[in-house]
Amino acid sequence: MKYLKIITALILIGSIAGTGCKKSWLDVNDDPNRVTDENITPDLLFIQSATAAGARQASNNFRFVEHWMGYWSPPGDFAIEQDETSYNIDFSFGDALWQNHYGVLFDLKLAKDKALATGDSCLAGAAMILSAKLFQELVDIYGNIPYSQAFNNDQYRQPVYDNAAEIYASLQERLDSAIIYMSVDAPKSSFETTDVINHGDQVLWIKFANTLKLRMLIRQSETPGFDPSGEIDKIVNYFGTLQEGENIMVNPGYVNDNNKQSPFYANYGNTPAGVDAATSTRANAYYVNLLSSTGDPRLSRIFRPTSGTFVGAVYGASTGNPFGTASSRLGPGLAGSASQDAWIYPAFEAMFLEAEATARGWIDGDAQEIYERAVTESFVFLNKDNEDGDPEAEAADYLSSVDIAKWSNAGSSVESQAKFITYQKYIALGGVDPLEAWSDLRRLNMIPDKGYISANPSRLSNSLPVRLLYPQSEYTTNADNVNAQGTINQFTSKLFWQP
């Protein structure tokens, strides 16, 4: 199986391979600049892989989901992507996403293994928590994936594909182990500096792990006979999930310089020279109309006005869309500055999970109160670097005056309340986590109309694909195992948790 090997791994291989020769009498000095297995420490590996995890969340690899979910669209001066806008995707469509996710997972495994070898259990636990997030995302995009044999290249040159449901169960166990690692030992003195995400806050790491556990449970909510009670007890009895202000962010020291900008800003803001870095990324008319029709003040933080108004493009339309200069770019709540923190998991997303779990009766509490706090936190999140307006007051007005946000319109059934909560979650996730919104849509079909569907008349379906096809690189290098998954169709090959 072909995985992207990030530079640290290549350096390791090269340095190890070079140790077979004996030093001659001429080798009187060791080169202090030569990278060896000994001086690639778990701390360095973790900083690199944690930063890469943040970059994955901001990656261009997820732009197609932003388009599919109705958040973004290319403007009229770009030809439409026929495969993406028609949903007629092929085996190469998700290749880069697959390779890049596995590349970060490879580095996280190295960081974990080296941390455990040096007795740094907290660092190992942090690496395991990040890897659980990325593995779940791969499952939610592709279904069965290489997991148990992944990265054991000395034993398994072509790793088998593990069952997706079994991977979910294993990830729950891995997160339990990571929580133990994060709990039983005092961190090393270097952990606070090495931890460029939570700055040594072990409780925050545990809450993040619990949030990921809850996310997997929520994903399986529509699976017949599913009982989350055992895992829920672990979560609520040990610190719970992320709350207000507990955003999981990474920032190793981003600055406005080449290859040093915060990744989302680098991809969708301005270059260091002040030039638009994403001329093909503009507001989607569907999302602009949704936010403007309810007077949602988040509109001005998600997008920037052009000529005093917000203008979106119709996704999939081949003619008639406004050009880039006449359509809205991403706003300061998303692409604010070159030095901004890179989000890995925002607190408001966790709070929406908690609200749904409470509505389902899994967690004791007031679903309305948690839901309203989640909406409010989404306003605060988009205003975190701008300090304009009063996001709490704006949220309170929105919740009390907008019909689609009033809890009185949520209904009394679990199904209606879950859809109500996840629809507001969908509205809050634009530009932040489109994969979560796509997963909710596949699980609950909570969006009340089809306005987000591509306008391309050649589209294969009036519904979004339920998954991506396995990448071409797998059919080239791991053919037996990927072919064992059978014929995969992007519309009918549902994931195990889909109803």
TrEMBL record:
<protein>
    <recommendedName>
        <fullName>SusD/RagB family nutrient-binding outer membrane lipoprotein</fullName>
    </recommendedName>
</protein>
<dbReference type="InterPro" id="IPR041662">
    <property type="entry name" value="SusD-like_2"/>
</dbReference>
<dbReference type="InterPro" id="IPR011990">
    <property type="entry name" value="TPR-like_helical_dom_sf"/>
</dbReference>
<dbReference type="Pfam" id="PF12771">
    <property type="entry name" value="SusD-like_2"/>
</dbReference>
